[in-house]
Structure formats: C-alpha cells, structure tokens
C-alpha cells in the first residue's frame, strides 16, 4: 500500500464506509475529495460482466459528453490536400499527410486524436505499431475514419470521446474536471453510462454493470450504487 498524504486521508473520511452513492451525491463528493493543487480530472471506472477475450463481448463506442471533458484535445487530421483546408477550418491542430506520417514513424505522438479519410488508411496502416498501443489509430467505429472530416474534428473538439473495455472487463473514462459544477459532472456521467448500457452485448450473461466508481486524480474512489445505473 502506498503511503497516503494528510489531504488524501482527510478526503477519505468524507466517504462513508460500505455506502454506495447516487450519481448526484457521488459527483458532489468527487469535487470535495479532489486533493490535487491543479484542476484534476474526474474519472469513471466501470467493471462490466463481459469477457473481452470473446469478440462478441467486446464493448467499444463513442459518446459526446454534454459538457465536454474540460481537456484541450489536440487533433491531427491525416488527409489528402483536397481535404486539408476543411480540416484546418474545423479546428484541427495539425493537418497534413506524408509529412506527419514520417514524423510519427520517427516517434512523434504529441496528439490526442487522429482523424483520417478512408482513402489514406493504406498509408496509415504502417503506423499501427506506434499508434495502436497508444490508442491513436483512427477507426471507423469511433467516427475518426470518415469523409466528413470537418464534423469529425468538431465532434472531438466538443467532447466526443472513444472508449473501449480493457482485458480485465473495465471501462475507464474521464468525464470532466474538478472545476466543473456537480450537475455538469452528473450529466456527463449519465450520458456515458446510458451509452454503455446501450452497448450491452447480447452474449453477455448475468449482471452487466458489476461496479461503478468515480474519483478525481489522486483522490479516493467513491462507489456508485448500481441502482443508480439501470442494469
């Protein structure tokens, strides 16, 4: 067990032992128990009753959070010249193709999301070993491989996030910042949870949502009652 600081210990006292909270109380507590000096991220961790080793139980999707994530998302648009002006006008931070493919091959990954058009995916495929482990590979399912480059860039900038269950059956996502109002965090959490519920695989048996926790960066975890999440 890592040694905890005084602020963490005091924050932990605000969480009642063996109690599971509704979304309203949980989001209020997440703000109160944020112990970092910076504007901490507020995260949701959901343990699902799925086995991601089976393709038909893989849970992956996207959701547009009503209030965004509070994070400035750096977007790279890998597109041919005909689409580059469109990407720039939509707010992409970096726009190009061969020049950026070369930079990435050399190890540059100072971005959060890559948007690409289908016609360039043949070139981008060779970057799989670099982009794949970092979760940066564009994917049609997440809306980041599309001819509608402007809409894709705007959606990402506005708070659209991509999520995917890990090998342990856990979904992890940032839903805001400690500077957000509790209602903003609650509404973002509700949007995320509703999307996860809609993605329940038909082959998943038993309890789908097994546990939900909310926490701030460096802050204690707060359990959310499953009754607050329609499971």
UniProtKB/TrEMBL annotation:
Could you tell me which CDD domains the record lists for this protein?
A: Ribosomal_L1 (cd00403)
* GO CC, alphabetical: large ribosomal subunit
**Alphabetical keyword list:** Repressor, Ribonucleoprotein, Ribosomal protein, RNA-binding, rRNA-binding, Translation regulation, tRNA-binding
The protein's matches in InterPro entries, at most eight in alphabetical order, are given as: Ribosom_uL1_bac-type, Ribosomal_uL1, Ribosomal_uL1-like, Ribosomal_uL1/biogenesis, Ribosomal_uL1_3-a/b-sand, Ribosomal_uL1_CS
Which Pfam families does the entry mention? Ribosomal_L1 (PF00687)
Matching SUPFAM superfamilies: Ribosomal protein L1
Which PROSITE patterns has this protein been placed in?
RIBOSOMAL_L1 (PS01199)
Q: Which GO terms describe its biological process?
A: regulation of translation; translation
Q: State any single GO MF term.
A: rRNA binding
What family, per the record? Belongs to the universal ribosomal protein uL1 family.
Function, please? Answer: Binds directly to 23S rRNA. The L1 stalk is quite mobile in the ribosome, and is involved in E site tRNA release. Protein L1 is also a translational repressor protein, it controls the translation of the L11 operon by binding to its mRNA.
PANTHER family reported in the protein's UniProt record:
54S RIBOSOMAL PROTEIN L1, MITOCHONDRIAL, LARGE RIBOSOMAL SUBUNIT PROTEIN UL1M
Spell out the subunit comment.
Part of the 50S ribosomal subunit.
Name listed for the protein in its UniProt record? Large ribosomal subunit protein uL1
Its source organism is Natronogracilivirga saccharolytica
From the UniProt record, report the name of the gene that encodes this protein.
rplA
